[in-house]
Specification:
Elements: E1 8-12, H1 17-28, E2 32-37, H2 40-53, E3 60-64, H3 70-80, E4 89-92, H4 108-135, E5 139-144, H5 157-177, E6 182-189, H6 198-201, H7 205-212, H8 222-233, E7 244-247, H9 260-264
Parallel strand pairs: 1-2, 1-4, 2-3, 4-5, 5-6, 6-7
């Protein structure tokens, strides 16, 4: 893929995992990168890691921000424009799950936190990133969905419902903002071998179930997803918007994973 020199990018949840790998790839290709998250020590270490492989002259910085707090994400978006005076790329990656289990005995607070982090956090990021891009000629936003947001994974319904919301948010925004030269897409990772998924990838019945339902029989890597985000963020995908790209080794061709196995184990 081509050079991103002169571009400015924001990656939420950029201190580890997929966010860190994507931020590093964007910086390697010449983009000025700002990562944000809630833990400053983690962000500081990530900036050092990203900077070690960044293109010459690339600015890499961090902003401590909780994406569910509008004032904080607005400040992070503003900070991401400082290197070039504009924002070209935003990867709304921050997310997570606070509930795994049945619908009928679910803790409402945990479900609410899951929806707030994934859907509302993505909405607030998209809102402020798009406003910044609209003021400076356009840009590209990539949201983070999941296979769980596209087809059922037993007992992962709260996270899945929130991610399904992210997908529809991105589609609606893509249609609305195309005339402002803003493209919006999202990615749907399958099982990824990173720290967020280590409770699964360490082994057990749920990991075995994932493997059985994945035609390309290996775990995904953070680099697998980063390459896809880089493509959707850059000029190579200039005629693509409103797309949700599965990066899952073909898992979507079969059934979702059974998270009940995790609770029974």
């Amino acid at each position: 893929m081509g050079d991103l020199s002169g571009a400015s990018a924001l990656v939420t949840g950029g201190g580890s995992g997929i966010g860190l790998a994507t931020a590093a790839l964007l910086a390697t290709d010449g983009a000025h990168v700002t990562i944000c998250g809630r833990t400053e020590d983690k962000l500081r270490a990530a900036v050092e890691q990203i900077g070690s492989g960044a293109a010459t002259g690339t600015d890499v910085r961090y902003a401590v921000a909780d994406v569910t707090l509008e004032e904080q994400i607005a400040t992070a978006v503003a900070g991401a424009t400082e290197a070039t005076g504009k924002l070209d790329i935003c990867f709304a990656n921050a997310g997570g799950s606070f509930h795994i289990g049945s619908v009928v005995d679910a803790d409402a607070e945990a479900v609410s936190k899951t929806i707030e982090l994934n859907l509302m956090g993505t909405f607030l990021t998209l809102k402020h990133a798009a406003a910044s891009m609209a003021a400076s000629g356009g840009g590209s936003i990539v949201g983070m969905s999941s296979g769980a947001g596209h087809f059922p994974h037993r007992f992962l319904w709260a996270y899945g419902a929130a991610k399904a919301g992210v997908e529809m948010l991105c589609k609606y925004a893509a249609e609305e903002l195309a005339d402002r030269n803003i493209r919006i897409n999202c990615v749907q990772p399958g099982i990824i071998d990173d720290e967020l998924m280590s409770f699964i990838t360490a082994g057990g019945a749920l990991l075995d179930d994932y493997r059985e339902q994945t035609p390309i029989g290996r775990l995904g890597t953070v680099e697998d997803v980063a390459q896809a985000v880089r493509f959707l963020a850059g000029p190579e995908s200039g005629w693509i918007t409103g797309e949700c790209l599965a990066i899952d080794g073909g898992h979507h061709l079969r059934r979702g994973a059974n998270y009940q196995l995790l609770l029974e184990g």
